[in-house]
Design a protein that fits this description.
Blueprint lengths: L2 E5 L2 E3 L5 E8 L6 E8 L6 E6 L6 E3 L7 E6 L4 E6 L8 E9 L19 E5 L2
Parallel strand pairs: 2-10
Antiparallel strand pairs: 1-3, 3-8, 4-5, 4-9, 5-6, 7-8, 9-10
Length: about 130
């Protein structure tokens, strides 16, 4: 059964760090781009980051560049999002999804991606 499951969210103080995981099952992860997205209450879903099957292509949204790092371990069928220097505006539900291809698009658009996970809540607050 094709599935993406996010984990690793939680409550963290501003300036803190979290590492999110996106565990894939039911398909060969190497053939797909994986995107991370987030959605805050009352806002549209926002593309955060993307990584290609080989890891050779990555993209970041402007609001997270220099603070977030995406990586993948195909042997574990898992993609990670390391989030550092977290800000209150990073609060939201974080989702991962897949897109068949081998190069991340310039713009990480949620409408291009499929097979969404259930999301994991990230709250940045003091």
């Amino acid at each position: 059964q094709l599935q993406l499951v996010e984990s690793g969210g939680g409550l963290v103080q501003p300036g803190g760090s979290l590492r999110l995981s996106c565990a894939a099952s039911g398909f060969v992860l190497n053939y797909y781009l994986i995107g991370w997205f987030r959605q805050a209450p009352g806002k549209e879903r926002e593309g955060v980051s993307c990584i290609s099957g080989s890891g050779g292509s990555t993209r970041y949204g402007d609001s997270v560049k220099g603070r977030f790092t995406i990586s993948r371990d195909n042997a574990k069928n898992t993609v990670y999002l390391q989030m550092n220097s977290l800000k209150p505006e990073d609060t939201g539900i974080y989702y991962c999804a897949r897109l068949y291809g081998n190069w991340c698009p310039n713009r990480i658009e949620s409408t291009d991606f499929r097979s969404w996970g259930q999301g994991t809540q990230v709250t940045v607050s003091s």
